[in-house]
Design goal:
Length: about 475
Amino acid sequence: MDYAISLYFTRPEIILTISSLIFLIMAAWGGQKSARLITILAVAALFGASAYLIEFMTNDAYEFGGDAFGGLYRMDAFSNLTKLLIYLAAIISLIVAPRFFQKTGEYRPEYPVLIIFATIGMGMMVSATDMLTLYIGLELNSLSAYVLASFIRTDSRSSEAGLKYFVLGALASGMLLFGISLVYGFAGSTSFSVISETLSGDLSTGPLIGVVLVLSGLAFKISAVPFHMWTPDVYEGAPTPVTAFFASAPKVAAVALTTRVIIDAFGGQTSAWQQIIVFVALASIVLGAVAAIGQQNIKRLLAYSSINNVGFMLIGLATGTAQGVSAMLFYLVVYLAMTLGSFICVMEMRDKDGKQLETLSSLAGLSQTRPGLAAAFAVFMFSLAGIPPLFGFWGKFLVFDAAVAAGMLPLAVIGIAASVIGAFYYIKVVKIIYFDDPANEIVKTGHKTENAIIGALALAVSPLGYFTIPLLAPITANAAQALF
């Protein structure tokens, strides 16, 4: 084993690990007043790690990637792209957090440290080529997330969200670990490549149950039906910057991890996993669309929107083709911009006392009091609904096109029909903003940095986003091809 090459390939994780340990010492010595400085340094560390990812993506010498630590970790185009998305989401979540927590006086230096720890875990997840690496990365991310969900200790909703997330997350981890043990028992190895080779051909009942349990544990992490029950409660109770982080970075990591496990470890068992993914995709699309209709809390509504969008991503994965995975990755990029933009807009919903507002009724007449925020909200809602010419439409079109190309026309037709149902509640939000009598609850509290991020993300999912297709299409196609 060449440790020099292994350390070279894992430079992003090494940078973040060393940085997080330094930040812990700074937090211990500096106390509460060091929070802002550590946040700035954490953003710088994420940018530094991203620079190495960009080098891996643009240098022809790394075109085919490479394995590290005896096949436990893989650096390739797929992991590089997904890590870049994760780091970008973490950066934005860190930038918008201090001002939100200042209102409650709850911002502490532990927040950026926990974000970095979660990001390290997610980086390991998307590069895992062994069940042990997968589990260690998953738990590092999960343990950080449990604390982040309950970060505001004086808020009972935040504490409840953290407890619910922990209990249900422990259940999902147990299912995943039991599935891994079954697969290991029948394959004789935890390596994805060995599992794929050993479990080729017809599966007996034992390994089939193992595959089902592994996919069930991963379905919890991506909040797919029927393992979605934690999502609305945690998204509503957690602080809004944390919710924005949960809906973006861990979602990318979990979807990428699920994709790698299915293609690398269970790729030869298409008949075993494809039925599961098709059911989970359709169930997530339908439930996410229907359950959101009656919601009056904007964060719960966006939680069901997240479940709905995961269903569309899984349509691309269900095809089992490079085109389908490429479409899924493209959808992930667009989803990241839409979701982060939506939650940052929610952070701007404050009354004259600085209290966070979350009800849909408080958005009434927003177009008259804050026309810029209202326009951005409308762009994100219409894009999430997949209404042309906004960029969200193109992401949905790609996954449906991949499904049709793979001979899965009924799946595409049902997905399109369900997306029409989902469009109802997105349009309802826009209707409240522009056509209801003004509630005059939301006051102007905008900050230049937050407004700039909202504006940039709104432009990214506007029709201007189509100009990025010549750049994004080959990157996502190359990343997908790395798995095949």
